[in-house]
Amino acid sequence: MYVDQTEKSKSFTHLIAGASRGIGSALLHLSLEKGESAWGLSRSQPDTVPSGCNWITGNADAPETFADDLPEVIDALTFCPGKVVLGPVKRLTSEQMLEAYKTSVLDAFTLIQTLLPKLQDSSIVLISSVAASMGLPNHCAISAAKSGLEGFALALAADLAPKTRVNVVAPTLTPTEMGLSMVGGEKMIPLIENRHPLKKIPAVNEVANTISFLHSESASSITGQIIKVDAGLSEIRLNDR
Question: What is the pLDDT of residue 136?
Fold first, then answer.
């Protein structure tokens, strides 16, 4: 039987939390290009909202304030938020550690728990970081938070099986506005790329495409996985050349 893929895409509803910039913004544009019903969620609305998308302004930790604006059914949920807190352990405060954990783990939990009635036969992707599985200087807060997020995702995948799939994408540094500001701007990119076995860092669209794949029927047997888009940084060591 012939299935109209265009009509099928239009019936696929994708909610992207943290869609106003970076990976979330790239994913929103990709979802629209695929003809999906794309919904963006962020604390503030961007200056330019992409044509064809549905935008909700609200905080992930208070979904009750925008619950009435959400679609009845959500086929895919991507959670991108998470405060990046960097600094040596001797200067970190407990408040900063809690902030990193709250914005990565507790906010994801709160949003997903509220959306559960809408997430039947769906896919969830959470955004972690390569820092969750590596010892990197100045990363105690984000490493702890993203490690917690990955643990939450694995348990969530077990809780929601077999109806809903849950996966994690853990990128290395990506050249977003936030990412570049963390490392001192574009001038530092060649040095950072050289530390990766593939001598590159992933483009934002590469990460977005990985997330999109995990939400697709082609990934219908994938759940409880942490997919590292990190140019080999976390697993491969090369001899000096």
Answer: 85
- Cα–Cα distance, 68 to 116 (Å, whole number): 14
Instruction: Give Cα separations from 11 to 7, 50, 74, 142 (angstroms).
Output: 7, 19, 10, 36
pTM listed for this prediction: 0.91
Minimal CA–CA distance to 71: which of 120, 109, 106, 35? Answer: 120
Q: Find where tokens 């994938």 sit.
A: 222
Structure tokens at 27: 């994913």
| The two three-digit tokens of residue 123, written as one number | 């896919």
pLDDT along the chain (241 residues), means of 10: 46 95 94 97 90 95 95 97 88 95 97 96 96 90 96 98 98 71 65 86 94 98 97 83 58
Cis omega before residue 50 (within 30°)? Answer: no
Measured between alpha carbons, how far is residue 2 from residues 33, 147, 208, 219 in Å? Answer: 22, 44, 29, 21
| CA distance linking residue 89 with residue 220, whole number of Å | 41
Question: What are the helix and strand counts (H, E) for the chain?
Answer: 8, 7
